[in-house]
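Module 6 notes. Inverse folding takes a fixed backbone as the condition and produces residue identities as the prediction. Think of it as a translation problem where the source language is geometry and the target language is the twenty amino acids. Below is one complete input and output pair. Work through it position by position during the lab.
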């Protein structure tokens, strides 16, 4: 562990020790721990704009952005004001409220969904979408792709098959074999594997669920036409196409990944899941889609789904304020910043002689640090993403952290920017890159 004992992280180390005594692994979501990179996670006490401030008073440029939600940066005054006003009127009533209608209207306007139902996490959104797809079709099989993460839903925590459609086994203890037995895992970006799965099981498949543009194996965007092919194949076989936009929704464009491909190519998903940005930093998520499919949902239809805090007025107010402030100008700025930074990471790694692929999907990007120069110009699936040298990433990560840049503490994650990452902030990141690239080269 490179830096546990250093005085400048003493306070975080002490807090982590206390946390370990009362919480498994000391964290409430696994990747916040530094298990993949070693060392002590920094306990953050406050955040503002593009910066995090830890318990030892150190400042970091934040390239996690709460794993996606903080599109406008931390403590945005417009979002803060809306939230404070909402809190002053009480925090939860268990009745319908105005902000949830307004947020639903905003989502329906921006995206291909006709109706939307709110939940509190991305996990709940994908779990409910799959239940609805199964209820609507009367079928049980779910197709997912290796390396795509859809939250900790039993049926979706399935190990990867090996290039073939295999009925899958659970990827974690505690998930009954029966829960994943109806899940088919296919390699990502592989239309032939999709065709084969449908040729064999076409009339049993309830839905295909995919990250709209994967960010949970590092950033591995869909090859041109892949999402379209999924939508068309599902339609041909009476299955539903579920596009998981929990990460990409309202982040890569004002209408998410669909705004970058579906709207242009002329296809629509049957169901879409959202989370992260639409909650503005609060626990809010949603699933939505075709009106006839959504009509199956309780109390209109027979498929049950519910939640005590679903559509919470504070969370939906934060989400609504965030979406209203996320103008075309914000997205243009994010695209530009991501392009610039991705180029600089590429340049620094090249100059240090580290074999790598830097890959972007919209304004999300990540770097794959490798042992050998890549044989293809892109990383297209989980097998290729897994060829990373994670020890090189570990060295890169800690060198950046030492210089005050907080990257995701795992090589299998997207890097996130916000509209608060201005040129001065980007310069700070850029100036830290050469030393980090040299540290990665030394591994
Ligand atoms: N789907 C995707 C694409 C995600 O990235 C995530 C979370 N990273 C989830 C679902 C699950 O969301 P949550 O963590 O809010 O349950």
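Target side of the pair, the amino acids:
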């Amino acid at each position: 562990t490179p830096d546990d004992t250093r005085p400048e992280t003493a306070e975080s180390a002490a807090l982590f020790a206390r946390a370990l005594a009362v919480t498994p692994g000391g964290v409430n979501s696994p990747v916040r721990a530094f298990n993949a990179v070693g060392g002590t996670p920094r306990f953050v006490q406050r955040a503002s704009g593009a910066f995090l401030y830890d318990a030892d008073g150190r400042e970091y440029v934040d390239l996690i952005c709460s794993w996606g939600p903080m599109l406008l940066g931390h403590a945005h005054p417009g979002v803060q004001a809306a939230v404070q006003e909402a809190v002053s009127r009480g925090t939860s009533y268990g009745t319908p409220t105005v902000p949830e209608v307004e947020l639903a209207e905003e989502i329906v306007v921006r995206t291909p969904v006709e109706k939307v139902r709110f939940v509190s996490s991305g996990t709940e959104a994908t779990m409910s979408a799959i239940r609805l797809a199964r209820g609507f079709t009367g079928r049980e099989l779910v197709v997912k792709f290796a390396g795509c993460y859809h939250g900790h839903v039993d049926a979706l925590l399935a190990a990867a098959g090996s290039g073939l459609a295999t009925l899958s086994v659970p990827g974690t203890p505690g998930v009954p074999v029966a829960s994943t037995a109806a899940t088919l895992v296919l390699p990502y970006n592989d239309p032939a594997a999709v065709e084969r799965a449908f040729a064999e099981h076409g009339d049993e498949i309830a839905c295909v669920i995919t990250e709209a543009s994967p960010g949970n194996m590092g950033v591995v965007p869909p090859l041109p036409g892949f999402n379209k092919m999924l939508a068309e194949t599902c339609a041909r076989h009476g299955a539903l196409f579920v596009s998981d936009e929990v990460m990409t929704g309202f982040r890569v464009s004002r209408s998410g990944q669909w705004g970058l491909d579906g709207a242009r190519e002329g296809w629509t998903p049957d169901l879409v899941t959202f989370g992260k940005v639409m909650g503005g930093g609060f626990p809010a998520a949603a699933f939505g889609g075709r009106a006839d499919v959504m009509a199956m949902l309780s109390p209109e239809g027979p498929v049950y789904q519910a939640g005590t805090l679903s559509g919470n007025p504070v969370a939906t107010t934060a989400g609504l304020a965030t979406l209203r402030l996320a103008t075309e100008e914000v997205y243009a700025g994010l695209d530009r910043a991501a392009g610039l930074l991705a180029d600089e990471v590429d340049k620094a790694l090249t100059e240090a002689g580290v074999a790598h692929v830097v890959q972007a999907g919209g304004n999300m990007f990540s770097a794959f640090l490798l042992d050998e120069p890549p044989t293809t110009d892109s990383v297209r699936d989980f097998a290729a993403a897994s060829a990373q040298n994670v020890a090189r990433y570990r060295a890169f990560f800690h060198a950046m952290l030492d210089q005050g840049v907080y990257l995701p503490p795992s090589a299998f994650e997207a890097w996130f920017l916000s509209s608060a990452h201005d040129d001065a902030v980007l310069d700070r990141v850029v100036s830290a890159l050469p030393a980090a690239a040299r540290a990665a080269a030394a591994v």
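Reference fact for the lab report: Confidence is low (pLDDT under 50) at residues 160-166.
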